[in-house]
# Entry
Amino acid sequence: MRVPLGWLRDYVDLSATTDEIVERLAMLGFPVESVERRPQLSGVVAGRIVALEPHPNADRLQVSHVDVGAAQPLVIATAATNVAVGQTVPVATIGAQLVRDGKPLLIELRPMRGLESQGMLCSADELGFEPALFEDGILQLDDSVVPGTDVVEHFRLLDPVLEIEITANRVDVMSMVGVARELGAAFSAGVRDPIERLHLPTAAPQDASSGDLRVSIESPDCRRFVAERFSNVRVRMAPAWIRFRLALAGQRPINNVVDILNFVMLELGQPQHAYDFARLAGARLVARDAHDREVIRTLDGEDRTLTPQALVIADAERAQCIAGLRGAADSEVGDTTSEIVVESATFAGPRIRRLGLALGLRTDASSRHERGLAPELADVAAARAAGLLVNEGATAHPALAVGIEPTPRAPIVVSPQRVCALIGIDVAPPEMARSLRSLGFEVGFETASAQFGDPDSDLVVTPPYWRNDVTIFADVAEEVARIAGYDRIVAASPPVYEQAISSSEYLHERHIAHCFADGGYREVATLSLQPHSVYERFVTSGIVLGGEPVEIFNPLSEDQRYLRFSLVPALLSLAQKFASMAPLRLFEVGHVFERTESDPFEFSTTAWMYVAQPVDEPGWRDSPFLTFKGEALAIVRAICGRDADTVTTESSGLHPGKSASLVVDGKDVATIGAADPRLLAAYGIDRPVYIGSLRTHDIPGYTVPMYRAPSKYPAVERDIALIVAGEIPVHEIEHAIVVATDGVVKGVRAFDDYRGPQIGEGSKSIAVRVKFQRDDATLTDAEVDGHMSIIVKSLRERVGARIRE
# Structure
């Protein structure tokens, strides 16, 4: 939420600096995301145009005579076409400091086609506003601004604008008055509440009428509905002080009716909507459920088809507003409108949120309604808006208020001793009472004879109507801690108690993460929620997946509707974004979800990726894949303390001819390979990408390797050329050699793979080097020959190999 400090000072006197305010807001639980420093403006005063005549030497220029409160009017040349005699406009005098296109602009006396211009008439851009927020040309002020008034000081245009993060449970702070209450309590400053002297409407029957207007509620999800009719309305430009405040808060001024309602929404936090009374069929407004396939054209020009799950405000014939979201174009207030109805209502927050998600529509109004507004706020905002509209010359008719009647909040009994024990700060009961009262709480004692100095006396605390979030003792304790200051809490290490929940899974995942980090990979953390387009991208690329992803019932947006089925899509998105930084090594340890017949199956997995630089070499060589494979084997060895065997396999999402499984103790623990070219094309990646994945629970824990002293006797190496079936993997050949002898074979390495007509179709020739070595004696040639015979027999029996002649 944008909070202009100049506007905030209307409600609370703050002598603190901007940095102190930012720090205090953070301590109150509302961190400031950014501080917008306003451009340094000076020398801008209000001026009234008393005469206007054509420039003698230029067809497109006019010469204005402007009263700025001095002895003589200023003569100023202008090319603007929206100026007229009698207007009040901002005038930059000679020496004024302005801004244009974000750059400083100094106003100097200069001739314009032979006429010396004594200043400049200012547009919104030159005062540091976005031009789109205001009318084209010269900015218009209202006649209430006296000529000669310092515009910058009068409208507080130099004060910074804060962007404040508001938590979901504090809808009351989504208003200027709400922020003022917080800072007033924090800095012990008085708060000027604009609603204290308002005349609020009284509750009426469920179907109420006033003159020609009737209002009613037909849905329980409309909690409170206040409507008021105004006649003699003149739709025009709003007063300058309202327009400037709206613009600083990021709202575009439109006309006085809309601007007043937007102003009250930002001031008090209650959205309102205005209807052209002449366009309401039957002079009636009713809060009801939408009819099935009821169509409404909203103010943005879109036709929206509704279902009974939608809540609407309707006249006697059709829906005129989607409750809490957006009004209809049929009853829009326009330049010819002379009579309006202002609706101020509160609704069930969850229904408004679901409705906004279903329609793909979120507005400033819905962001407040969906958090649950207090019913009393509808009456307060209606009275505030009525006062401002009457100031604009409108005639107010009696307000109608239907729905639940506001009732006082239930008091909460609070023990000061329990509060201090909970928050870890020693706060005296009088200080507690002052802190709570400064936030609008009523504070009394459980017994009439109790005194403030008595620490054993319980306090009776009644929350104000705008604090729906305070319902229990702990909520009151939190309020005391916020105002007393979290910085008063002494830093201390809390006791750590033994828990029944095992930490083994967490420790195992952390060990895996450290092994990848030690292997040169950088850890990333991506979202568990994703759009359906991720799944569609895989499927349309021809990648076979196990089934549809798991959909959640209550998504925050379409981009967060599905639980992720794999960590790989997020890594590919990062590869697409940062491919220019290759070589790039990333990994993530996280949970993924699979659809089952009952509840979704959630399990922990690890995925890692290597984005390589293109290499000028034959395609069959693929040296980056060998690098990736070597790193994967080293990481698996670091994780479990054992070497993994590599077995050729095929896996969805990997290149069919460049993928393998890593096997430890006869169990597949990981899959590695080059990314499927179809996936790379779908993600627009033009560099070699290699992907690995392992299930965290499949890979065994670390086993400390046993040290074995190397033999002091010489080794003997023999080469053997074998012919085997083409589908026999090398690791099976190596295994058949190792198990054939009783520990004499110390190493096996295949160093040649040949396929050709000399071998025969469907077969291949594998050359293997076998290393023999004993720990207790030197091997003789006869012994080695004997072992070779045993090895040849084992190869023939286990893998069907024969010696190549």
